[in-house]
Amino acid sequence: MITFRISADEVESVARCPVCDGVRLRELSRVCQRDGVEFLATARCEGCGLVVRHRRPTKAWFSRAFAERERQQAAQGISALNPAIEEERYQRYRRLALALRERTEAGAAGRPAVLDVGCGPGTGLRAFAEVGFSATGIDEDNTRAGHGRALGLAIVATAWENYAPEQRFDVITCLHSIEHFHEPQALLEKMRSWLKPGGRIVIEVPNLAWFVADWTDALYLAHMANYTPATLARLGRLAGFHAVERLRCYDDDRKNRENLCLVFTAETPAAPGPAVGGEEDEPSWESVARLYGTGLAPGLAAPYVFEVPAINDISLGYKNSTRISANLRENLHMRSARLEAGSRRLVVE
User: Fold this and answer.
1) Using an 8 Å Cβ cutoff, are 207 and 232 in contact?
2) Would you say residue 108 has pLDDT above 60?
3) Domains in the chain, please, with CATH?
4) In 291-316, which positions are buried (b, 16+ CB within 10 angstroms) versus exposed (e)?
5) Omega into 303 within 30° of 0, i.e. cis?
6) 333 to 10, 29, 40, 229, 323: CA distances (angstroms)
7) CA torsion angle for 54, 7, 182, 286 (degrees, to 10)?
8) How does pLDDT run across 14-38, given as a tens digit for each residue?
């Protein structure tokens, strides 16, 4: 198992909420390594309700960690792809592609152009192409992008900050990706410049109240924030967008609640309709703190303080098994938290 080293100068603090610019960030949890370096902390913004990592590794650290993982996996002949995960991804994208095709006019060539930001190996691009889109993707992970390019998919291996397309797109999707980025508003503003007039942006993220089930999210290193319908709609407004529809493309009601999918347009709606993003009650501090305390020793109160032996998984922070499940919840629960005698520290094992 790979260990990813981190030092204090590779950790940054977030002083203001990225959605409302508020400074009242009430801490839910902190995570440190056994050597004392605190590398992840989670807080709820008291202004808008966003749950955000207010201490986190820098983008440079993540880039180095991904490069090291790629190097070691290549040396060991380990594939970066999980077939079960990619099949689930394909089905998810196909349902969305069918819904969007009904809402999107064909371009001059008869095939509307879609860009998928954070496309990975391009599994979703294949689904879009099969439904009738001209599909392009970008992803910073050169290994995963390379898998798709080898299959003939149009994938540009680059960071979104460096992407400068010659064309504009009818639809831009960012599915379970924006929560991974350090600067979500800047990303959305960049996406706006890639969009055709009248085009749509589709953002899907885990829905805080349904996705966070217990304390394990406090260690989930991959996510920079957890959104609700209201906070995601507000983020869109910051970048000049209006949320015009919430899509529910899953056959399962629970998945439609767990996965929050909003459609945005840069044009002001001609006739104001029902507010999109306000259909669910915003979770209170108390309810969010209970979520993050679920499964821990009785009587503990937030902020919860965790200690891990090391960072050995770029997404999960720490796991005690090399096994990888296609089910995220199984991966999250490949560890336990033991209350250290005489303290409030929770030792993750």
Assistant:
1) no
2) no
3) 8-80+283-348 (no CATH), 83-265 (3.40.50.150)
4) bbbeebeeeeebbbbbbbebbbbbeb
5) yes
6) 27, 18, 18, 26, 12
7) -20
8) 999 999 999 999 999 999 999 889 9
